[in-house]
User: Fold these one by one.
Assistant:
Number 1:
Amino acid sequence: MTFKESYNLPRAALAITLAGLMFASMGVFVRYASASLPSEVLVFLRNSFGLLLLLPWLYHHGFRNLKTNRLSGHITRSVTGLAAMYCFFYAIAHLPLAEAVLLNFTSPIFTAIIALLWLGEEATRKLLLTIAIGFSGICLILKPGIGILSTAALVGLISAVFAAMAMVSIRDLSKTEPTRRIVFYFSVTATLISAIPMFWYWQTPDLKPLLAMVFAGFSATLGQLLLTHGYSLAPAARVSPYSYNTIIFAAIYGWIFWSETPDILTLFGALLIISAGIITLLSRPTRSLTEPD
């Protein structure tokens, strides 16, 4: 299927929005399970269940063409993505849900910076301005000048940095690697690496936290598939802004389940970060979404 044949903005927007709902739902399940399990166990369970739920999708599309000549690139993507997950899960356990998600969603700002250094992309005045706007929003959320800066908030911000590194590595890999290959190697590598700390941190979960992580893995995997489908239906610059619905869903969940309400500085910071992220995404040239085989 060619890009022109698959262009369908309403369906793409719906898929991206539903993906956001799934990712916010994953945050709820992780937050619930974090009350009784450490982050290391949560990350392992999320990756394990995610890989199991991904296998039918891989079987449907076939396991052919999974051989790669870019193993080092896949390892880089996997390590940075896994580091982002560890930090994000820690932030979810120690911050209001919407704030943890919002800090993670600063990744487009860091992606722009890393792409400048790693891929040598052009540093336009608009891009530099949006980076400055985004960092202003980050400062409003972290509130370093009024004594509210917390370790959890810094870890949440670090999760965005690692997520940005993962996104830049995906952008580099996608020049030669199809989506299913990138997803496959990340799922396998992340599961294997996250199994190592289980020799020290493993705790046998009770039934409810275990079921929560099953649903977390399901939500994350379904969200990733919806996100991939959405980006296959329309230009990334047109549909990426819909991914910020994740923050809205997370805020609603936080209010319903934990009576969390953001303060005025966080709201203004969110507005700046979302604006900067959208401008950054819209400023990028759109490439064909037809995958190599």
Number 2:
Amino acid sequence: MRLRVGVVGCGLIAQVKHLPLLRELSDHYELVALCDLSEEVVRSCARRFGVERTFTAWEDLLAEPLDAIWVLTGGSHAPIVTAAAKAGLHAFIEKPLCFSTAEGRELVADVRAAGVHTMVGYMKRYDPAYRRLAEELSRLDDLRLVRVTTLEAPLEPYVAHLPLVTAKLPRGLVEELRADERERLRRAIGDVDEPTRRTYRVVLLDSLVHELNTLRGLLGEPDSLPWAEIHRHGVNLALRFDGVPCTLSWIDLPGLAHYEQEFSFYGAAWRAAITLSSPFLPNVPGRVTLEGGQPGTARAWRQVETVSYEDPFRLELLAFHDMVTRDQEPPTSVEDALRDIELCERIVRRHLGGE
């Protein structure tokens, strides 16, 4: 069964990943309509990907005869997803789901009341390397330490050679969007200082939710958040999962065009880890590293696996199709994504000295 799809938001992630993949998976999807605030951008994407119907208002796109929409816009996705659910449309939603726990709870209630399927775009959860690590962790015991390190790099070098189109929006519209975003952020974390507000929006919601979601997928919900620090170059924090300490560091390195992310899990005599490259680099596989040793001896071993060259973005799009056509619940549901928003809010409160 082919699903008739409309895409709301034709920016970077749409042009680099979702639109090419929706066209590639033509036996699963029919790309029917595109929407973007910029008429120049939406018309250019329509020509490139062979789409006839274009809109600059998402409300108009929802009136089209569609099965599902892709929500790839900036800002909170709650208003669009809620309206789509009430229109009976399934939704693929790029992270973050929304800006606050309060609006997320309302969104989840509306989605469930409508009886539609929704999935949030945490592509790392569909990465073959992640699945291999999860399989390995399920058979290991005596977990003693978890470490996560993200070396953030500028994405421009990864996409500069691609035929991307951008356009400036009218100043009045930009100011209106910024005002809406500021108010939604204020409702989420209060009247905090500007560096904290910006880190919550740009680092926690836009990037670090991936690390939090990946950890939760592997270990379940954290017991506690003993410590969190937001600083000028990133975020450091400590979590505990079933009493096991976990340290996480996200650091911005703008002068190094080499994104790298590692999740490491340590037992008394073993280590299991995945190392992931930038999601904007096509067909670069994640690496799975497994190590072991024999206590009291020098004996040790180490193996590095390449599990697959499959694109995790492609795999999550196939999972969305299965979700809708086979009535399956995805691992990255809206309820699951809401817990990441709650955890991001807690990180800010802990940084500011609260509980």
